[in-house]
Amino acid sequence: MISEQLQTLRDTDQKAMSTARINGLILGVLASAASLTDNPDAIFDVWVHIGGALLLGSLCVAVLTYTVDRPSYGIGPGYFGAVLNECESREDVENDILGRYADWIDDNSEEISTNGSHLLAAQTLFIAGLLSIGSGVSTSL
User: Which residue among 24, 36, 52, 83 is least enclosed by CB atoms within 10 Å?
Assistant: First the structure.
């Protein structure tokens, strides 16, 4: 169960960074286009500016999505040394492990939920930014 959760978190992080890369690419194209024209205000109306701001917001949220997760990986190298000093029987050790796994699964579920919400926000801002830029470009043509 934990390995599947960790894979879900990795997939979410990968999608977030793909979103961030695409945002960066589009923002770079917009900045380059603005620097190549003599009168950028003639091409970039308020909708393009709003779209650029939305893409910048999407970029920030996508990077946040990638950086905020702190998954629980399970038993670490120091676990058995610590638990053997605390537990008196094999049954105590097994119960401790089961309890900790339940906690790790709950913790990872919260991380998945938070990351999913951040990714949804990043992609919603991305789509809104593209629609705004498209609207601005179509009105200026």
Answer: 36
Report how far residue 131's alpha carbon sits from residue 111's, in angstroms, rounded to the nearest whole number.
30
**pLDDT reported for residue 15:** 93
How far from 91 is each of 32, 78, 84, 85, CA to CA, in Å?
66, 19, 12, 14
Nearest one of 36, 3, 5, 8 to 106, comparing CA atoms = 5
Residue extents of the structural domains in the chain: 2-140
Contacts of 53 (CB under 8 A, 6+ apart): 129
In tens, the pLDDT along 10-63 reads 888 899 999 999 999 999 999 888 888 777 777 788 999 999 999 999 999 999
80-119: pLDDT as tens digits = 677 767 777 778 777 877 887 788 888 878 888 899 999 9
- CA end-to-end span of the chain: 54
Quick one: angle between helices 46-68 and 90-140, nearest 10?
Answer: 170
- C-alpha dihedral (6, 12, 13, 17), degrees to nearest 10: 160
